Amino acid sequence: MSYVAIADRDHEQEHHDPQTFITKYVWSQDHKVIAIQYGCTAIFVGLIALGLSAMMRLQLGFPDTFSFINPENYYQFITMHGMIMVIYLLTALFLGGFGNYLIPLMIGSRDMVFPYLNMLSYWVYLLSVLILLASFFVPGGSTGAGWTLYPPQAIMQGTPGIDMGIILMLASLGVFIVAFTMGGLNYVTTVLQARCKGMTLMRMPLSIWGIFMATILGLLAFPALLVSAIMMMLDKTLMTSFFMPAISSMGADPGYTGGSPILFQHLFWFFGHPEVYIVALPAFGIVSDLLSTHARKNIFGYRMMVWAIIAIGGLSFIVWAHHMYVSGMNPYFGFFFATTTLIIAVPTAIKVYNWVLTLWEGNIHLRTPMLFAIGFIFTFIHGGLTGLFLGNVTIDLPLSDTYFVVAHFHMVMGVSPILVVFGAIYHWWPKITGKMYNETLGKWHFWMTFLGTYAIYLPMHYLGFAGVPRRYFAMGNTDFLPESAQDLNAWITVSALFVAATQILFFINVFITLRNGKKADPNPWHANSLEWQTPDTPPRHGNWGHDLPECHRWAYDYSVPGYDDDYIPQNVPANVAPAGRDHGGEH
Amino acid sequence: MSEAVMESGAAVEPDGTAGVVNDFARDKQVFGMPWGKAMMWIFLLSDTFIFSCFLVGYMSVRIATTDPWPNPSEVFGLTAFGYDVPLLLIAIMTFVLITSSGTMALAVNMGYRKNRKATFWLMVATAALGATFVGMQAFEWTKLIMEGVRPWENPFGAAQFGSSFFMITGFHGMHVSAGVIYLLVVANRVRNGFYERRGGNYEIVEIAGLYWHFVDLVWVFIFAFFYLW
Predict the structure, then answer these.
(1) Are residues A512 and A533 in the same domain?
(2) Residue A120 in contact with residue A127, Cβ under 8 Å?
(3) Where on the phi/psi map is residue A255: left (φ > 0), alpha (ψ -120 to 50), or beta?
(4) What phi and psi, each to the nearest 5 degrees, are found at residue A252?
(5) With an 8 Å Cβ cutoff, is A249 touching chain B?
(6) Are B53 and A223 inside 8 Å of each other by CB?
(7) Domain range spanning residue A217?
(8) How far is CA A567 from CA A427, A554, A580, in A?
């Protein structure tokens, strides 16, 4: 590894441009190429997970119709869908994809501080994806334990994929964590140590704050998943009893004694809850920038937004057991975790109010990225409010493990981050590719996805209230469920297939504009942050040409009175244009 | 902040907490150290969480199990000169590892004094002590395995004793082994002048030292929680 990384090499960067196709696009150490590699891989596995959800919906909407879906592979679909979407798609796309692309560009650095480690991070991530996908093809298939992999059932007879599937899943998680750690150390160190002159922490765009905080959460939360994966792997392969109690399986004694399944739940959710915010915080940050840019207004309460991100990050480590109210833990724990959970609503609500107030009297341009950003506010408020129900012990108990929970977490950490992902891709598409996307297709894509989302998830709340349990292959003759529940399920399935199909609009847009798109302006949105001020579009290796940029103001000087343009980029000196509000910390 | 101050570029520095926050947030490296060192600190923070989870998991299964927990003083005792000495080997291992932290600290010091020869030999001594530690751990594992201790069972009591022992000491031993390799690579580069050609910067010795001290510190916790409890 080179000790003097590219960000320090001010004047020799021309000599370091990779020349061959292999070093430029395959074994690349350029953060932008690595970001695109991460993004493409993540979206590819995301599509597989989307296909799996379509299979699940087919079974639920039209039971006994499709002979190729049996209970075993239904559970495998559920498990792989959840695991892929949460970890291999969203975590990898936000941090590996957007984190890699945006951090050096937005803070005015030439690259990550350790480009070689960054490259390794991607290839190890790819390895973890391959191990995960391999589990579809081993004898017994992939694991069907549910994405939470709760023991004892995860490694007991009767669960699909207990031979090789669960082993490959645990191994893949371990490898993913190694990959994430290599990337994550890079992101945090780059933000802390490699900002350009004038780029104080309190002048960083909120995208960077969100990604930065999420990476810290990842570095502190993934260890718990690693440890639980190792322990479960030992329980499975070496017959240790960390998580496995003395238990009888199909009339036989599998040989376990005295372990604690609840220990797994604690370790898993000590990872699992921060994981929600690992996905949400980058979305919070990015959406703040999209709203401010397309509303031509400074973000409302920048300082509070930063502190809210930090507060949410901190609180996310002390709420994990709200996923375990029904595990039989001490009632005092329930009291504690319900309290902390509801406290997290305060900084989150601050953020939502600030987004709405940013739009207030703004000069709103309803372009595709803005539509997705506003759509996010809707879905996030929606999912957040149902979270208040589930955060209270007494309300959670009857709703636990019903479709209400499914609807809640899909709204809050499925749909909401995905809307931001799309908004962000449209927003930065001109910078990443140098081509302009097709606005009409983009808007169709938004409306189909956004309205379709509500068609899918609103009815699920009602199913949950009615008591439809999640993860069931079929309802059978369940007396308490009205016949109409099945009609609603069929409706959800049709909507889900429709929404899945409309995603083709996105890919058409991508491929058409990559081939024939019209050349994009270097700063089509008249945005302030540094990534739009690069000398080349798309930025070349080293990002900034000969000289690093200097930052003179925060990223939100939009519509500053007394200035001709309605935006002042961060690298415009203070004596050229009035600095709207200085966020260097001095008063 | 007034515009006049803004344009003259002279900033008014706040005092107290605001000053501290201001100092950390300003347009410079947050930590006044090389990137590699900052990254190592962050990595060690993450690694701390891994070992904490291991130890908390161990404590949890130790409390949860219904079988009696074996007495570590007896299990890890050795007979020397006709006396049964509890924790004899562990005491020596701990002593060896702590000593290696001392030689590492000296190596860092010699590195900053640009004394390449002394740095090299002190790092080799550190690695040798580390390798000795791993060797003694292998001896201990062998002894316990001969006595019938397995990850899934042991003759002394709760099965989780063997599981936790092999998992935690194994994971720590892997850290020590990786550290030995890391130290030897850096030591070799110190010897052949690799860092001399790059401006004579020996921060890397300190970075390796951070990792090494961390591994030692973790051992102290394992020693306290596993052997003394």
Answers:
(1) no
(2) no
(3) left
(4) -115, 160
(5) no
(6) yes
(7) 200-243+259-350
(8) 17, 11, 10
Chain A residues touching B197 at Cβ < 8 A? none
Across the interface, do B163 and A241 touch by the CB < 8 Å criterion?
yes
Q: Contacts of residue B25 in chain A, CB cutoff 8 Å?
A: 200-202, 584-585
On whether both A273 and A419 belong to a single domain, the answer is: no
CA closest to A1 among chain B residues:
B36
Q: Are B27 and A575 a contacting pair at CB < 8 A?
A: no
A326 and A408 in a common domain:
no
| pLDDT bracket for residue B6 (50, 70, 90) | very low
Residue whose pair of structure tokens reads 């937004």 in the numeric block:
A305
The answer to whether residues A170 and A102 belong to one domain is: yes
Domain segments of chain B as ranges: 33-228
pLDDT at A10 over 80: no
| CA dist., res. A172 & res. A131, Å (int) | 6
**Nearest C-alpha in B relative to A107:** B27
Chain position carrying tokens 């409302």: A300
Q: Does any domain span residue A96?
A: yes
A538 and A503 assigned to the same domain: no
Query: Alpha-carbon distance A147 to A322, whole Å?
Result: 17
Cα–Cα distance, A355 to B107 (Å, whole number): 54
Residue A78, pLDDT score: 95
Sequence-distant (6+) residues with CB within 8 A of A388 are A342, A345
Q: How far apart are CA A427 and CA A257, in angstroms?
A: 55
- Please choose, from the candidates A191, A207, A541, the residue with its C-alpha nearest in 3D space to the C-alpha of residue B35: A191
Interface contact flag, B1 A587, Cβ < 8 Å = yes
Q: Would you say residue B102 has pLDDT above 90?
A: yes
HSE of A586, CA atoms in CB hemisphere, 13 A: 17
**Domain B33-228 indexed as CATH 1.20.120.80:** yes
Q: Tell me, yes or no, whether A44 and A174 share the same domain.
A: yes
3-state SS string for A148-215 = CCCCCHHHCCCCCCCCCHHHHHHHHHHHHHHHHHHHHHHHHHHHHHCCCECCCHHHCCHHHHHHHHHH
Q: Which residue has the higher pLDDT, B132 or A481?
A: B132
Q: Which residues contact B145 (CB under 8 A, 6 or more apart)?
A: none
**Residues in contact with A3: Cβ distance below 8 Å, sequence separation at least 6, in sequence order:** B36, B198, B201, B204
Which residue from A36, A45, A46, A190 is spatially nearest to A98, judged by alpha carbons? A36
A257/B67 CB distance under 8 A: yes
Instruction: Report the distance separating Cα A118 and Cα B97, nearest Å.
Output: 33
For A446, list phi and psi in degrees, rounded to 5.
-60, -55
Question: Is A316 in contact with A274 (CB distance < 8 Å)?
Answer: yes
- Burial category of A265 from C-beta neighbours within 10 Å (exposed 0-12, middle 13-18, buried 19 and up): buried
Judged against a pLDDT cut of 80, whether residue A183 lies above it is answered with yes
**DSSP reduced 3-state for B149:** coil
Report the distance separating Cα A512 and Cα B140, nearest Å: 65
Mean pLDDT score of chain A: 92
Q: Evaluate whether A106 touches A122 at the Cβ level (below 8 Å).
A: no
What ipTM was assigned to the predicted interfaces of this complex? Answer: 0.91
Q: What's CA A422's distance to the chain center, in Å?
A: 12
Predicted confidence (pLDDT) at residue A525 exceeds the cutoff of 70: yes
What's the CA gap between A499 and A489, in Å, rounded? 15
How many contacts does A have with B, using Cβ atoms within 8 A?
160
Nearest to A144 by CA among A160, A164, A163: A160
Taking CB atoms and an 8 Å cutoff, what residues of chain A touch B22? 585-586
Predicted structure pTM score: 0.93
A533: closest CA of chain B, how far (Å): 19
